[in-house]
Every structure is written in structure tokens, then in C-alpha cells.
Amino acid sequence: RKEVEQDPGPFNVPEGATVAFNCTYSNSASQSFFWYRQDCRKEPKLLMSVYSSGNEDGRFTAQLNRASQYISLLIRDSKLSDSATYLCVVNLGGSNFNKFYFGSGTKLNVKP
Amino acid sequence: DGGITQSPKYLFRKEGQNVTLSCEQNLNHDAMYWYRQDPGQGLRLIYYSQIVNDFQKGDIAEGYSVSREKKESFPLTVTSAQKNPTAFYLCASSRTTNSPLHFGNGTRLTVT
């Protein structure tokens, strides 16, 4: 079983739509959670960290459910520029701070 | 601005040749990492280093070597022993506990 699993998509949505991605992780000892955005043939860039109480940054909302071991990313009012692949990343933390596990990414296409 | 610089952006080599990818950071991060990304796959860890003069093998270290003589620098050598070297190579750094990865802009290596 993979450490981190994501629906690969693609999610094809019109501009202005709300779209949500989920990601599940297998190690209950995981301590830190992140969403990254990766454009085609570019490096991943940190979109947001995910905190236990949930957090929002503009049109983006991230949530963590430790009991069910999943994190989610909600994008409201989608823009064409949101088209990218979104990576879910989990870190074990503590003495295993160097252990990052990556999902394979969920591709989002926002269409006019 | 602080960041991570990888060079070159594109690299072409003949089979059987060793090649070294450069990675320099000025974020004052202790930990540095090398990942490999193949099309449609998640990132896989090649090597990581938590401190100068120390580094550890990741999940796919065979055919690769690294050095960490300075905090700022973590070069990766792809040797002729690596069977499938063509890939997108990403260098990253982080502080220690509970902090995200910061990526360089990547080196796309093609071996023919």
C-alpha cells in the first residue's frame, strides 16, 4: 500500500467552480501535512501547510482529519491559472523529520 | 531573496558517462535532499543530508553519489551504474522538525 494516495484526476472544471481534492495517508504517526502545486515541467511549490484546526488562504482551504487519516484541499472560484497538478505531502516529523511522502498528484484543468 | 539554485536546467549525456548536478541553497537550512521524478509518478528520495559531512541513502540510491562539504552545497553525481538515469531531478532543503520542503527549479537529465 502506498504511503500517500491521491486521485490522479484529471478534474476538468469551468472557471468559477469549486473543486475539492482528497488525499489519504497510511502512517498514523505522521505529524506535518502540506499541499504543493506543480506546473508542467516545473518544480513543486508550497501552496499551504495543513493545520489540525483547518486553515484558509484566500480561495484555498485545507483540512486535516487525523481519525480517518486524510487531508483535503478546497479551491473556490477556480481561475484558469489554477490549472496544475496538486501534490499531497506528508511528513513523519520528530526524529524522522527527513521522511517526506508524496502523493502522485491530482491534475486540475480549469476551462473558460 | 533566499532560495535553492540547481544547475544546469537541462543536461544531455551519453550512456556510460558520469554527470554531476549542482545544488546550492542560501536559506541556511541544515537538511538537503535529492529527489527523482519520472512522468506520472511521485517523487522518490535518492539521498538526504542532515548536516555537513553526513548523508544517508534514500529509497533509490543505487547508481548515485553525493557529498556535503559545505552547508550550502549538495551536489549529486549520476554514475554509469544507474540503469535508467533519464529523469527530472529535484534538490530540496528544509529546516528540521515540522517544516516544509523548498525545491530548486530542477535539472532535466537525458541520457542517450
Task: Give a structural overview.
The complex is a heterodimer of chains A (112) and B (112). Chain A has no helices and eleven strands. By secondary structure, chain A is mainly beta. Chain A is globular. The mean pLDDT of chain A is 94. Helix content of chain B is 0%, strand content 49%. In chain B, strands 2, 4, 5, 6, 9, 10 and 11 form a seven-stranded mixed beta sheet that branches. In chain B, a hairpin with a 2-residue loop joins strand 5 and strand 6.
Keyword list:
heterodimer, A: 112 residues, mainly beta, six-stranded mixed β-sheet, five-stranded antiparallel β-sheet, 11 strands, B: 112 residues, seven-stranded mixed β-sheet, four-stranded antiparallel β-sheet, globular
Poorly predicted ranges of chain B: none
Helix content of chain B: under 10%
Instruction: Give the CA-based shape of chain A.
Output: globular
Distance between the termini of chain B: 37 Å
Q: How many separate helices of chain A?
A: 0
Give me the secondary-structure category of chain A. Answer: mainly beta
H/E element order of chain A: EEEEEEEEEEE
> Cα-atom Rg of chain A, whole angstroms?
14 Å
Largest sheet of chain B: 7 strands, mixed
The radius of gyration of chain B is 13 Å
What fraction strand of chain B? over 45%
Calculate the mean pLDDT score of chain B and round it.
93
Mean pLDDT of chain A, nearest integer?
Answer: 94
Specify the number of helices of chain B: 0
| Uncertain segments of chain A | none
**Termini Cα gap of chain A:** 37 Å
Order of helices and strands of chain B: EEEEEEEEEEE
- Give the chain pair forming the largest contact, with residue counts: A-B, 24 and 25 residues
- Helix fraction bin of chain A: under 10%
Largest sheet of chain A: 6 strands, mixed
Annotation, overall tally of beta strands of chain A: 11
